[in-house]
Amino acid sequence: RSLKIGMLPADGIGREVLPGAKAAILALGSSIPKMEFIDLLAGFEYFTKTGTALPDETVQILKSECDCALFGAVSSPSRKVTGYSSPIVALRKKMDLYANIRPVKSVSINPEGRPGVDLVVIRENTECLYVKQETQTVGEHGKEARATRLITERASRRIGELAFKMALERPRKHLTVIHKSNVLSITDGLFRETVRAVPTLPGVDGKYDDVTVAEQLVDSAVYRLFREPEIYDVMVAPNLYGDILSDAAAALVGSLGLVPSVNAGDSFVMGEPVHGSAPDIAGQNIANPLAAIRSAAMMLRHIGYGDGADRIERAVDSVLREGKVLTPDLGGKSKTSEVVDEVTKRI
Ligand code: NAI
Ligand code: MG
Known about the structure:
The chain starts with a strand and ends with a helix. Strand 6 and strand 7 (142-147) form a beta hairpin. By secondary structure, it is an alpha/beta fold. 37% of the residues lie in helices and 19% in strands. It contains 11 helices and 12 strands. Strands 2-1-3-12-11-4-5-10-8-9 form a 10-stranded mixed sheet, sandwiched between helices. It has a two-stranded antiparallel ribbon with strand order 6-7. The protein has helices at 14-26, 44-50, 56-65, 87-94, 153-169, 187-196, 218-227, 239-252, 290-302, 306-322, 336-346; strands spanning 3-10, 35-39, 68-73, 99-105, 118-124, 134-139, 142-147, 174-179, 212-217, 234-237, 262-264, 269-271. The protein folds into 2 domains: 1-100 and 261-347, 3-Layer(aba) Sandwich (Isopropylmalate Dehydrogenase); 114-252, Isopropylmalate Dehydrogenase. Helix 1 (14-26) packs across helix 9 and helix 5 crosses helix 6 (187-196). The protein binds 1,4-dihydronicotinamide adenine dinucleotide and magnesium ion.
């Protein structure tokens, strides 16, 4: 069986870390027969040249030829740019990658990092405020801007089902539902109720009896994440809260450059480091490639190459444990490429 992997480095350090992910997969050698990497275009820089951030061809090739994909990072400007819209947000929707799974775990090399963090943020990936239906009008008192926030029962149920499934697979089997339904009782209320109702769905038949369920308002969830991160195991959240919580959780373990994710749907998976394009360090060969490499491992595990994923993760863990070859975000002096070489050698 051959494996075709779509590669979308996009912008900034995305282009520096994705080659590391590729090198790690290639280092697995013949344990994965007939690997093929297909380079695909997307990103803000591509938009500035062509007027489109995500060409139809990229989506078409992903759908028709690729078994899975890896995305680097995109440089989405904070100002409004006419005609531009984030390709990663669009890809998640177009490929129906409805879940963004972001594991965050303590690493021993970071003396300032919190020990005992071992959690997964499961972020709904297709709706909430990220439907991007924004309007601006002029009212009596000047400009007025509005955004639609969409929460559906269908999307909340499928993310809830995934969250329960993941909680059941983990040793602590604990799930925290994140919301703000004390204020947004209709939208967050629907999310909360739908997720909590998963164990009562037809056909579940007590499967989730061992999962303990808690809930936490998103603001106090951030507070507790910093005070007592050990209490969390699986956290499930609507899109925006999940985005913010997972960056916050990354700070606990030392660097955004360590935290991987996959965007998963029922028929496709795309690995993606949680971090962005990091313009402050781009082009210097100092970006931490480990988040991208771990994302590659997560992607492989998702499509059934668990052994390969284990080998990559063990290599990353041993590089971290030894603590000699690290990029500056972890207090080291090594280059991106040196960390990649160290990991591939160990694979
Ligand atoms: P960012 O994640 O790019 O950077 C935040 C901070 O973390 C920076 O100081 C950066 O140097 C550091 N950092 C991030 N990844 C690192 C790595 N691998 N190694 C070492 N240090 C790392 O977030 P920021 O600065 O808010 O956004 C920059 C751009 O990235 C924006 O245009 C934003 O739209 C985009 N972005 C894209 C995402 C994606 O493609 N999924 C996600 C988040 C932001
Ligand atoms: Mg983010």
